[in-house]
Design a protein that fits this description.
Low-confidence stretches: none
Structural class: alpha+beta
Strand order of the largest sheet: 5-4-3-7-6
Distance between the termini: 34 Å
Length: 388
């Protein structure tokens, strides 16, 4: 009997060694995540602005040092939020932050003040906790965000957010918080593509939408050039005709993700660059500059495309109409890109540009890169965070 127990304990200990050793080697050796402690993306700049991580010479390397930066960003958001969306309910929202390594908690109030919290006091707010990986949830009056502290020193995690220039926690608050407010809008009776299929296998449609993204960005980057808007809308109309199922599956996400991304862009610029972005004129100029970076803002996948297409269509609508936000909230099927199309409904559109085989091949190559699995590195990181 004692021998059986001994054998059992040996087996259990061996399995533990194998599991811990396998996870450690998998995360640290075989399926490592790429990291960089220096920026690898250039800032975007002109004689008025510099946008990107280079605009912030000092980046906090610890969560204790970053919390004051985040607090000031949220204070700035609460200051300008009322003017960014009609009846904006995201005013006076608090944030609870947890460090996944340190297990520290902080409460950031709407005025930017910071209060350290004990664990029990933090959990009393009633949010769903993310104990092992980055994540967020909501509570009455605000949002909870869990940090992997080491991500603060990995520029690959957040340097692409040129519209903020720092670690992207405040963008989660604004983007995901904005989604929460969308429940107050008129809603569609049915939502196509509930499974959030990106339809990456439909390469011609993805190539057409890639062209549309680039044309929308060019229009934003060149204020006052109506012809660029018309060219983009010609592509949009042609895409709807050629790929009606694709169009049908995009409507909800053009509406929901497009507007949330727009809100992320404008709040990010105000929060991240208070010395540069002081008013709506500065904001529009900075958005035009951002749109010059196709390498950052063009996405691949039906839903991912909606972030850019309708996110920047909102910027164009801001330049053309004063009440489009109210009308979008009141019409459950309105999308920013369709509203832009309707604005020019009486204008003759140019012949739509047709995508070439080389453009199709280029998009196929980008999609293939997306299909190179990142699941194993992320999975081993999860296991590592749980066990170690």
């Amino acid at each position: 009997m004692k021998k059986s127990i001994k054998v059992f304990l040996i087996i259990i200990a061996s399995l533990a060694v194998i599991i811990y050793g396998g996870v450690f080697l998998g995360h640290k050796v075989f399926f490592t995540e790429e990291t960089s402690n220096v920026p690898t993306i250039e800032a975007v700049a002109n004689d008025k602005f510099i946008l990107g991580v280079q605009a912030h010479p000092v980046h906090p390397a610890t969560l204790d040092a970053f919390i004051p930066v985040l607090a000031e960003q949220l204070r700035r958001h609460n200051e300008i939020a009322p003017e960014l969306w009609p009846g904006n309910p995201l005013v006076n929202q608090s944030l609870i932050v947890e460090g996944l390594r340190s297990k520290k908690f902080w409460l950031i109030s709407p005025d930017g003040s910071v209060t350290p919290l004990k664990k029990d006091d933090a959990l009393s707010y009633g949010f769903t906790r993310n104990a092992y990986v980055d994540g967020f949830s909501f509570f009455d009056g605000g949002m909870y965000y869990a940090y992997s502290d080491e991500d603060l020193t990995n520029y690959l995690k957040w340097q692409k957010y040129l519209h903020l220039g720092t670690h992207d926690a405040s963008l989660f608050v604004t983007h995901e918080g904005f989604h929460r407010t969308q429940s107050n809008w008129q809603v569609m009776n049915e939502v196509s593509n509930r499974g959030r299929n990106e339809f990456l296998e439909n390469i011609p449609a993805r190539a057409k939408r890639t062209l549309l993204q680039k044309q929308i960005l060019a229009a934003v980057n060149n204020p006052g050039d109506k012809q660029l808007i018309l060219e983009a809308l010609a592509t949009y109309a042609d895409w709807k005709t050629q790929f009606p199922d694709d169009y049908h599956n995009s409507i909800y996400f053009e509406r929901i993700e497009g507007t949330a991304n727009y809100y992320e862009y404008v709040t990010g610029l105000y929060m991240g660059y208070p010395d540069q972005i002081k008013n709506s004129m500065d904001l529009d100029s900075a958005l035009a500059l951002l749109a010059s970076r196709e390498d950052i803002y063009v996405g691949y996948g039906l839903i991912r495309e909606c972030y850019t297409v309708s996110g920047f269509a909102c910027v164009l609508l801001d330049r053309l109409e004063s009440d489009w936000k109210e009308r979008l909230m009141d019409d459950p099927y309105a999308t920013p890109i369709e509203m832009l199309y309707q604005h020019f409904i009486n204008e003759p559109l140019p012949e739509p540009k047709q995508i070439t085989q080389s453009e199709i091949d280029a998009v196929a190559e980008e999609i293939q890169k997306l299909n190179v699995s990142l699941v194993l590195p992320r999975l081993f990181r999860l296991f590592y965070d749980i066990l170690f």
